[in-house]
Amino acid sequence: MTSKSQKIRAGIFVLAGAALLAFVLVMFAGLSFWTKKHHYRVEIDSSVIGLEAGAYVYFDGVKVGRVKNIGFSKQDLRTVVVDIEVDAKTPVHTDTVALLQFTGITGLKVIDLRGGSIETPLLPDGSAIVRGMSTLDTLEARGKELADRATAIVDKADLLVTNLTKITDPAQFEGLKEVIDNTRMLTANLARATNTFDSILGENRARVAGLVANAATVLDRMQRLVSTSEGPMRSAMSDMQQASRNFKELSRDVRQRPSRLLYSSPPADRKLP
């Protein structure tokens, strides 16, 4: 039968083993039964491949908690909601952001909290932490932008090649050849017309010169005639102006005294008997 001392030793052994197990769990598994925790959520609108439940959460590189759960948003299926649990003493402020970071070369990801200032208030437990842009995110966005630009350049190059193919197509030169032939014909006709005009001008140059000389002579004679007739013409114009004034006076006098048409002088006044 088991003695009392053996039972005591067995009990001490079990208690020591349990204490050792608890110590191992606390030290190596990261379990803390007496530390207060805060829970936050991070909404991510991109792939979270490499991030798993149980992944560490860091604050500026210092381990402060773990990822508790990963799920989908009820409002938008394209958004992934990551629930994290951190030490209540972690200084998570309203301007703190959460970054997705690679850890080592394994391809696994962790949550790294960055930023925050003392002037801003602490973020309440259960709130959402805004996601920030990590170097990886920036490079990914930049890569996508470069890929879009490369695609646009390829499309433009393809369009340029297509246009060059159309331009260099021999069928395109058929209409151009006709235009060139018409232009040559028009140029030849214009040259012939110019030669004909030059020949006509050469044949009639003497006649044209004679006409110009005669026109100059006629113009000179007209100028002399106007110059010699200026005095008589002015005298005649003066006489015509005087005659016009006399006629106006006569007309006015006749309207006032019609009897002057019958008598040279007005009749004498009649005496009453």
If you had to describe this structure to a student in words, what would you say it looks like?
With 273 residues, this protein is α/β, with parallel strands linked by helices. 52% of the residues lie in helices and 17% in strands. It contains five helices and seven strands, in the order H-E-E-E-E-E-E-E-H-H-H-H. A seven-stranded mixed beta barrel has the order 1-4-3-2-6-5-7. It is elongated. The protein starts with a helix and ends in a 17-residue tail after the last helix. 10% of the residues are buried.
Averaging pLDDT over every residue, what do you get? 77
* Largest sheet strand order: 1-4-3-2-6-5-7
Instruction: Identify low-pLDDT runs.
Output: none
Structural class: alpha/beta
Portion in helices = 40-55%
